[in-house]
Amino acid sequence: MDANQTLGDLLLSPFLILYYLLQWLLDRILSPIPPAPHDKLKKPKIAVIGAGLTGVSAASHVVGHGFDCHIFEAGDESHLGGIWSQVNSTSGLQISSLMYRFQPSVKWSGGYPKRDEIVGEIRKVWERYGLRDKTSFNTKATNVYKDDQGRWIINDPSNGRFDGVIAAIGTCGDPKAPHIPGQEKFKGEIYHSSELDGKDVRGKRVLIIGGGASAVEALEFVDNSQAKETKVLARSEKWIIPRNAVIDSLLAFNIFGQETLFSWIPENLLRIFFYRDLADIAPPKGSSKGIFTETPMVNSRVFDLIREGKAQWYRGDIHGFEENGVLFNHRAQGVGKNGPGREKLEEGDVCILATGGKATRSKSAAA
């Protein structure tokens, strides 16, 4: 971040000053002490599978408490940071950074940092705790098992023997791009939502297939790229909550992590004060889609774009591609997937598949 901009932000925002002070205190009080460069770490020795956010954080705590470890990462060094290293540069946090503290030493510059800052903080932790010499890149863990003495082996004994294993492989792997009937007929470009860096959609009609967090990020990309028009084609309604640290924190106070007898209160407040005239795209009242049944999307810009006429958000089913667009079955609120509706060709020049990533799987021969 530019030093002059940072100084200006601090002078204008006393809350930002307090946030910086809080982060400094958390680092001083809670961060484990990094080992000296030539410290000999003791047992137990831990194998960490994955050099993403969770893997780097776990390894920093292991060595910070005096124990040895080694990280195994399937990709090269460009994959340091896991899923965050592979998303678009415009992708950022969907929740307040106040609640996204994967390691006490992390210091965010603002409420909703973008990819480069997030990966940068992960790398700082990796460097600060001397994990560079304890990381093997291009080493995919394909076989995890125990020897006859109960020690763990990653792939083969040449990688060492370990007293414990931390599987930090995340939940999302490679991009998931389903084949849609008639896709080969479409005359426009088709991209996955994770591959938008460098793509030009200025002045074009864009169709976004999907209604989750990937679709919201794709919509932000399209808006920044000054597309002619954008249509989001979603299968179902999902909760969208504002980027507001106070509101997000209040919702996080639900310690049960699921629907309660009082869930209707925040749901109705969101419909009244946030959705307002767009209540039709919220999950219907009395449905099984309560706000705590799945992870809501956090974004304030989506509704602004719809109200400004720069985007439309439709609910329905994809029936297939045509040369100049997508056949889409528009469904009314509350009508289930593949239910009755009105089929219409939604025309577009570019289609973005906001269909997320493949779920990762872990296997071992643990006794």
Automatic annotation (TrEMBL):
Transmembrane stretches, start-end: 7-26
Source domain of life: Eukaryota
Stored SUPFAM superfamilies: FAD/NAD(P)-binding domain
Pfam families assigned: Pyr_redox_3 (PF13738)
Keywords, comma-separated and alphabetical: Membrane, Transmembrane, Transmembrane helix
PANTHER family in alphabetical order: L-ORNITHINE N(5)-MONOOXYGENASE-RELATED
Family assignment from sequence similarity: Belongs to the FAD-binding monooxygenase family.
Entry protein name: FAD/NAD(P)-binding domain-containing protein
